[in-house]
Amino acid sequence: MSLPRSQYDPRRVCVIPFNFESIPIFRKKRSLGVYVSGLLFGLAHWIFLDAAVLSAHAHPPPDAPYDTVPIHITFLDWIPGICSTLGLLIVNLVNKEQLIGEGGSFGSGEGGFVWRVRLFLFFGFALMAGGLAGSVCVLVLKYIVPQFDDYLYYGYANVAQNVLVMLSAIVLWIAQNTHDDDEYNYQLTL
Protein backbone atom coordinates (compact mmCIF):
# COMPACT_ATOMS: atom_id res chain seq x y z
CA MET A 1 0.00 0.00 0.00
CA SER A 2 1.37 3.37 -0.87
CA LEU A 3 0.23 6.75 0.31
CA PRO A 4 -0.49 9.59 -2.07
CA ARG A 5 2.49 11.87 -2.44
CA SER A 6 0.61 14.93 -1.21
CA GLN A 7 -0.02 13.39 2.23
CA TYR A 8 3.45 11.94 2.78
CA ASP A 9 6.16 14.00 4.44
CA PRO A 10 9.62 12.34 4.28
CA ARG A 11 10.69 14.05 7.51
CA ARG A 12 8.06 12.19 9.53
CA VAL A 13 9.04 9.18 11.59
CA CYS A 14 5.65 7.49 11.48
CA VAL A 15 3.66 6.93 8.30
CA ILE A 16 0.42 7.45 10.20
CA PRO A 17 0.27 11.08 11.34
CA PHE A 18 -0.56 11.64 14.99
CA ASN A 19 -2.05 15.05 15.59
CA PHE A 20 -1.50 15.79 19.27
CA GLU A 21 -2.43 19.43 18.76
CA SER A 22 -6.10 18.45 18.49
CA ILE A 23 -6.07 17.15 22.08
CA PRO A 24 -6.64 20.17 24.35
CA ILE A 25 -4.26 19.09 27.12
CA PHE A 26 -1.30 18.89 24.73
CA ARG A 27 -1.71 22.52 23.66
CA LYS A 28 -0.20 23.59 26.99
CA LYS A 29 2.95 21.48 26.82
CA ARG A 30 5.01 23.73 29.05
CA SER A 31 2.43 23.90 31.83
CA LEU A 32 1.79 20.17 31.62
CA GLY A 33 5.53 19.43 31.88
CA VAL A 34 5.93 21.69 34.91
CA TYR A 35 2.97 20.02 36.65
CA VAL A 36 4.26 16.51 35.88
CA SER A 37 7.70 17.50 37.15
CA GLY A 38 6.21 18.86 40.36
CA LEU A 39 4.16 15.69 40.76
CA LEU A 40 7.28 13.52 40.40
CA PHE A 41 9.21 15.72 42.84
CA GLY A 42 6.43 15.62 45.41
CA LEU A 43 6.00 11.86 45.01
CA ALA A 44 9.74 11.35 45.49
CA HIS A 45 9.83 13.14 48.80
CA TRP A 46 6.51 11.63 49.91
CA ILE A 47 7.90 8.11 49.46
CA PHE A 48 11.04 8.89 51.45
CA LEU A 49 9.15 10.71 54.22
CA ASP A 50 6.81 7.73 54.47
CA ALA A 51 9.82 5.48 55.06
CA ALA A 52 11.26 7.95 57.60
CA VAL A 53 8.00 8.08 59.56
CA LEU A 54 7.69 4.30 59.40
CA SER A 55 11.26 4.01 60.69
CA ALA A 56 10.61 6.42 63.55
CA HIS A 57 7.59 4.40 64.69
CA ALA A 58 9.11 0.95 64.20
CA HIS A 59 8.57 -1.52 67.04
CA PRO A 60 10.34 -4.78 67.79
CA PRO A 61 8.68 -7.98 66.58
CA PRO A 62 5.88 -9.33 68.81
CA ASP A 63 7.72 -12.58 69.57
CA ALA A 64 10.62 -10.64 71.11
CA PRO A 65 9.14 -7.53 72.76
CA TYR A 66 12.30 -6.68 74.70
CA ASP A 67 14.55 -6.55 71.65
CA THR A 68 15.42 -3.28 69.99
CA VAL A 69 14.77 -2.33 66.40
CA PRO A 70 18.09 -3.01 64.66
CA ILE A 71 18.05 -0.14 62.19
CA HIS A 72 16.50 3.28 61.64
CA ILE A 73 16.70 5.98 59.01
CA THR A 74 19.48 8.36 60.07
CA PHE A 75 21.03 11.47 58.55
CA LEU A 76 23.14 9.19 56.35
CA ASP A 77 19.94 8.20 54.53
CA TRP A 78 18.97 11.83 53.99
CA ILE A 79 22.25 12.91 52.33
CA PRO A 80 21.59 11.37 48.85
CA GLY A 81 18.16 13.01 48.62
CA ILE A 82 19.61 16.36 49.64
CA CYS A 83 22.32 16.04 46.97
CA SER A 84 19.78 15.13 44.27
CA THR A 85 17.50 18.01 45.23
CA LEU A 86 20.40 20.49 45.13
CA GLY A 87 21.40 19.06 41.75
CA LEU A 88 17.85 19.56 40.45
CA LEU A 89 17.91 23.18 41.60
CA ILE A 90 21.30 23.87 40.02
CA VAL A 91 20.38 22.23 36.70
CA ASN A 92 17.15 24.15 36.40
CA LEU A 93 18.69 27.48 37.41
CA VAL A 94 20.85 27.44 34.28
CA ASN A 95 19.49 29.49 31.39
CA LYS A 96 19.49 27.13 28.41
CA GLU A 97 20.16 29.93 25.94
CA GLN A 98 23.51 30.61 27.62
CA LEU A 99 24.74 27.12 26.71
CA ILE A 100 24.80 27.97 23.02
CA GLY A 101 28.04 29.49 21.87
CA GLU A 102 31.71 28.82 21.61
CA GLY A 103 33.11 27.12 24.68
CA GLY A 104 36.50 28.79 24.69
CA SER A 105 38.95 29.03 27.55
CA PHE A 106 38.09 29.58 31.19
CA GLY A 107 39.26 33.16 31.06
CA SER A 108 37.23 36.28 30.54
CA GLY A 109 35.07 36.96 27.51
CA GLU A 110 32.12 35.23 25.90
CA GLY A 111 33.84 31.83 25.60
CA GLY A 112 34.81 31.81 29.26
CA PHE A 113 31.24 32.59 30.29
CA VAL A 114 29.83 29.69 28.27
CA TRP A 115 32.47 27.40 29.75
CA ARG A 116 31.55 28.42 33.29
CA VAL A 117 27.83 27.88 32.59
CA ARG A 118 28.59 24.39 31.28
CA LEU A 119 30.74 23.67 34.34
CA PHE A 120 27.90 24.83 36.60
CA LEU A 121 25.50 22.54 34.71
CA PHE A 122 27.93 19.63 34.99
CA PHE A 123 28.16 20.21 38.74
CA GLY A 124 24.36 19.99 39.00
CA PHE A 125 24.22 16.73 37.04
CA ALA A 126 27.12 15.36 39.09
CA LEU A 127 25.21 16.13 42.30
CA MET A 128 22.17 14.23 41.01
CA ALA A 129 24.27 11.28 39.84
CA GLY A 130 26.14 11.28 43.15
CA GLY A 131 22.85 11.30 45.04
CA LEU A 132 21.62 8.30 43.07
CA ALA A 133 24.90 6.43 43.53
CA GLY A 134 24.89 7.30 47.24
CA SER A 135 21.37 5.98 47.68
CA VAL A 136 22.31 2.69 46.00
CA CYS A 137 25.38 2.44 48.25
CA VAL A 138 23.26 3.09 51.35
CA LEU A 139 20.79 0.43 50.21
CA VAL A 140 23.49 -2.16 49.65
CA LEU A 141 25.79 -1.40 52.58
CA LYS A 142 23.19 -0.59 55.23
CA TYR A 143 20.27 -2.86 54.37
CA ILE A 144 21.25 -5.69 52.00
CA VAL A 145 24.72 -6.75 53.24
CA PRO A 146 23.75 -6.97 56.95
CA GLN A 147 20.58 -8.81 55.79
CA PHE A 148 17.91 -6.58 57.29
CA ASP A 149 15.24 -8.09 55.06
CA ASP A 150 12.36 -6.67 57.07
CA TYR A 151 13.70 -3.13 56.67
CA LEU A 152 14.60 -3.13 52.94
CA TYR A 153 11.76 -0.68 52.27
CA TYR A 154 13.83 2.09 53.84
CA GLY A 155 16.61 1.59 51.28
CA TYR A 156 14.22 1.12 48.37
CA ALA A 157 12.43 4.34 49.30
CA ASN A 158 15.78 6.18 49.26
CA VAL A 159 16.62 4.89 45.77
CA ALA A 160 13.11 5.61 44.51
CA GLN A 161 13.35 9.17 45.84
CA ASN A 162 16.55 9.84 43.93
CA VAL A 163 15.31 8.24 40.71
CA LEU A 164 12.11 10.30 40.83
CA VAL A 165 14.03 13.52 41.54
CA MET A 166 16.21 12.83 38.50
CA LEU A 167 13.12 12.16 36.35
CA SER A 168 11.61 15.36 37.67
CA ALA A 169 14.72 17.29 36.62
CA ILE A 170 14.60 15.77 33.13
CA VAL A 171 10.90 16.57 32.68
CA LEU A 172 11.40 20.12 33.94
CA TRP A 173 14.42 20.60 31.65
CA ILE A 174 12.36 19.50 28.64
CA ALA A 175 9.35 21.56 29.70
CA GLN A 176 11.46 24.70 29.97
CA ASN A 177 12.62 24.24 26.39
CA THR A 178 9.10 23.92 24.94
CA HIS A 179 6.94 26.87 24.06
CA ASP A 180 3.18 27.02 24.18
CA ASP A 181 1.41 28.69 21.30
CA ASP A 182 -0.36 31.34 23.32
CA GLU A 183 1.96 31.63 26.33
CA TYR A 184 4.96 33.96 26.48
CA ASN A 185 4.33 35.33 22.99
CA TYR A 186 3.82 39.06 23.00
CA GLN A 187 3.14 41.01 19.83
CA LEU A 188 4.16 44.61 20.33
CA THR A 189 3.47 47.05 17.56
CA LEU A 190 4.11 50.77 17.53
Any overview of this molecule?
The chain has 190 residues and is mainly α. It has one domain. Helix content is 57%, strand content 0%. It contains four helices and no strands. Helix 2 packs antiparallel against helix 3 (110-144) and helix 3 runs antiparallel to helix 4 (152-177). The longest helix is centred in the last third of the chain and has 35 residues, at 110-144. It is elongated, with a radius of gyration of 24 Å. The N and C termini lie far apart (54 Å). The mean pLDDT is 82.
N-to-C SSE string, H for helix and E for strand: HHHH
| Total E-strand runs | 0
First-to-last CA distance: 54 Å
Number of domains: 1
Unreliable spans are none
Average predicted local confidence, pLDDT: 82
Helix content: 55-70%
Main structural class: mainly alpha
Q: How many strands, which pairing sense, and closed or not: the largest β-sheet?
A: none
> What is the 3D form?
elongated
Main location: membrane
Pfam families: UPF0220
Subcellular location: Membrane
Transmembrane segments: 32-49, 69-91, 119-145, 151-175
Summarize the structure.
The chain is an all-alpha fold and 190 residues long. The chain has 4 helices and no strands. Helix 1 (29-56) packs antiparallel against helix 4 and helix 3 packs antiparallel against helix 4 (152-177).
Keywords:
0% strand, mainly alpha, UPF0220, 4 helices, single chain, transmembrane, 57% helix, transmembrane helix, membrane, 190 residues, elongated
Architecture blueprint of SSEs:
Blueprint: H1 29-56, H2 75-93, H3 110-144, H4 152-177
